[in-house]
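Technical annex, item 7. During the second reporting period the consortium partners agreed on a shared format for inverse folding records so that results from different sites could be compared directly. Each record opens with the tokenized structure and is followed by the designed sequence. A conforming record, contributed by the partner at site C, is shown below for reference.
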């Protein structure tokens, strides 16, 4: 039988030779029970063996838990590294997507300019074709009138011949459409008058692009009244051309330049309602929002600016509208 002091000494030696360890509930209970027995002077050799086995088992469990914790820690560290790499790859890909979107947007804008230029040329060619067609129609009318006059003249000559005989030598030179005689007689000449101008020629005398350019130059010079008149006349004469949405937009800008904001807003609204597919719609919404700010109606201004941000987020107008909304808060 081991004495109480010896048992306590063995436990103290074991505890001092090892770092402090947290016990699980069964091991701690066993150690506590052994110490109680030792303190009571009733500890036996078997009790000490059981105590040692329980203690070693508890250490083994703790070592196993530590190993598992290391495995888990290693796993999460590896996963964390993988996630960080994935995030870095995603950021790189997003940056590349942003670059691709900007490149595509630049190409779209370039193509839009090319299409607008082509549409302008087509409008001018169409106008010139209509102009030539009008002149040809006028020429055809004049030819028909001349043919009728000649026919009437021939009938008149025939009637006169019946009443007053004409000498044969005069018939060759006086007969309508006769050629010059070998002796050098004066030939009859058919006079062809130039085509009469069409109604559009009388009104402007310019192609759609020329009329638009004249009004736009007046706007750039600050001659807003002249610009208004020019763009309004343009819409009256060339409303079906590709420049019609632009003309309507610049009517709004001209009123805006005159600080007549309500009329400017009305003109911008007409761009949106009458030409909803035009590339001038974002600018019209933006400037209408600016107009409501000038009028002092911030709720309506926010409504227009939000439409720009929601429907055209990648456009320059969308960025300007977003900044203006931030200023209004």
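Designed sequence (site C submission):
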């Amino acid at each position: 039988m081991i004495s109480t002091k010896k048992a306590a000494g063995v436990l103290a030696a074991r505890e001092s030779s090892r770092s402090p360890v947290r016990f699980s509930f069964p091991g701690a209970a066993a150690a506590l029970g052994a110490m109680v027995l030792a303190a009571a002077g009733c500890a036996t050799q078997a009790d000490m063996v059981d105590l040692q086995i329980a203690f070693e088992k508890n250490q083994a469990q703790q070592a196993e838990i530590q190993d598992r914790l290391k495995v888990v820690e290693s796993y999460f560290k590896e996963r964390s590294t993988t996630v960080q790499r994935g995030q870095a790859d995603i950021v790189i890909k997003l940056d590349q997507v942003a670059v691709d979107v900007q490149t595509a947007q630049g190409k779209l804008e370039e193509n839009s300019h090319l299409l607008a230029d082509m549409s302008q040329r087509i409008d001018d060619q169409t106008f010139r074709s209509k102009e030539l067609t009008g002149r040809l129609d006028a020429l055809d009318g004049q030819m028909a009138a001349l043919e009728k006059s000649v026919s009437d003249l021939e009938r008149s000559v025939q009637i006169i011949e019946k009443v007053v005989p004409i000498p044969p030598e005069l018939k060759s030179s006086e007969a309508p459409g006769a050629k010059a005689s070998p002796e050098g007689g004066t030939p009859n000449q058919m006079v062809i008058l130039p085509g009469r101008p069409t109604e559009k020629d009388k009104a402007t005398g310019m192609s759609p692009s020329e009329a638009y350019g004249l009004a736009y130059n007046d706007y750039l010079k600050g001659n807003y009244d002249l610009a208004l008149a020019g763009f309004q006349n343009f819409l009256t004469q060339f409303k079906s051309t590709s420049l019609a949405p632009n003309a309507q937009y610049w009517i709004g800008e001209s009123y805006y330049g005159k600080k007549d904001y309500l009329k400017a807003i009305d003109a911008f609204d007409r761009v949106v309602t009458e030409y909803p597919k035009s590339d001038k719609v974002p600018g019209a919404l933006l400037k209408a929002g600016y107009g409501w700010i000038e009028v002092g109606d911030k709720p309506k201004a926010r409504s227009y600016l939000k439409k720009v941000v929601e429907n055209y987020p990648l456009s320059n107008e969308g960025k300007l509208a977003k900044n203006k909304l931030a200023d209004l808060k």
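Residues 45-163 form the longest helix (119 residues). The radius of gyration is 51 Å. All partners now use this format for quarterly exchanges.
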